[in-house]
Design brief:
Layout: E1 2-6, H1 10-20, E2 28-32, E3 48-51, H2 54-59, E4 63-66, H3 73-80, E5 90-93, H4 100-107, E6 113-117, E7 127-133, H5 141-149, E8 152-156, H6 162-189, H7 194-215, H8 219-226, H9 232-242, H10 245-260
Helix pairs in contact: 6-7, 6-10
Length: about 260
């Protein structure tokens, strides 16, 4: 594969790390950024080319991953449109809030376009990536799935759900980090040192998710297995609910969704 990541910021670099650590065969990986001094550590990586030149990167690649900031997209598309070849290239966008039609309006509907929303866990091959495509992109959808399945899991969704997927999957990383952080702080208050507290919180979170993934059960079923009548677990759960844990989480997701629709 010959891949170009246009906009090697936090998410772009996470994608690059994930791809290079996967079992995919990468012939070349272009990383572009306006300030390439921030990418100097990548210059010594085999098959990786660092450049400011988006046209060069696109011309020498087949799979173009757009990872720039939303406000930069029109400028970047205008820059690369003359070297995009509908037969040679497929375009994968990971840009928040930008529709397939936004890209088609510049590059045309004959170009295969995949809209995706991975998260930063892609750097450790644990991303949950949602995907959708334009008509031409459907023919190459399997390529995008193979890329993102190599660095986590994928789900094909309707484009109208992509904003919600961004909140749940991409912003969701930060939400879960905050929950882990809060659990860590609670563990410190109960007597553990900071390192122990974080390890306990991380592994317990991983264990909880793994139970659901492997058993395919419902969260309430797993909760029922832990709680006992008049026990400490139900006491803690009830106090959390009295303080608005579930409603606060849901309100946070809705607030994030409303904000993303303003971008």
């Amino acid at each position: 594969m010959k891949i170009a990541i246009i906009g090697a910021g936090n998410l772009g670099i996470s994608i690059a790390n994930g791809i290079l650590n996967s079992e995919l065969t990468i012939n070349s990986l272009y990383l572009t950024k306006r300030n390439i001094s921030e990418l100097k550590q990548w210059k010594s990586v085999s098959n990786v080319i660092v450049t400011k030149n988006n046209v060069e990167a696109v011309s020498n690649s087949e799979i173009i991953i757009l990872a720039v900031q939303p406000k930069q997209l029109p400028l970047v598309l205008g820059e690369i449109k003359d070297v995009i070849n509908a037969t040679k290239h497929m375009v994968i966008s990971v840009i928040t809030g930008r529709k397939i039609s936004d890209i088609e309006s510049v590059l045309g509907s004959e170009v295969p376009i995949i809209r995706s929303m991975p998260n930063t866990a892609i750097s450790v091959s644990e991303s949950m990536t949602c995907l959708c495509a334009n008509k031409k992109g459907e023919d190459k959808f399997i390529i995008a799935q193979n890329i993102f399945n190599s660095v986590g899991k994928t789900m094909c969704i309707d484009e109208k759900l992509m904003q919600a997927a961004t909140v749940i999957c991409a912003s969701g990383i930060a939400f879960w980090m905050r929950l882990i952080r809060a659990t860590t702080q609670g563990a410190i208050q109960l007597g553990f040192d900071a390192k122990e507290a974080q390890e306990l919180s991380m592994q317990t979170c991983l264990g909880a998710a793994s139970l659901l993934v492997k058993s395919k059960s419902h969260p309430e079923q797993e909760i029922d297995r832990v709680t006992t009548p008049s026990g400490c677990t139900i006491e803690g759960l009830n106090e959390m609910e009295h303080q608005g844990l579930s409603s606060s989480l849901i309100k946070g997701l809705v607030a994030s969704f409303e904000k993303i629709n303003q971008i």
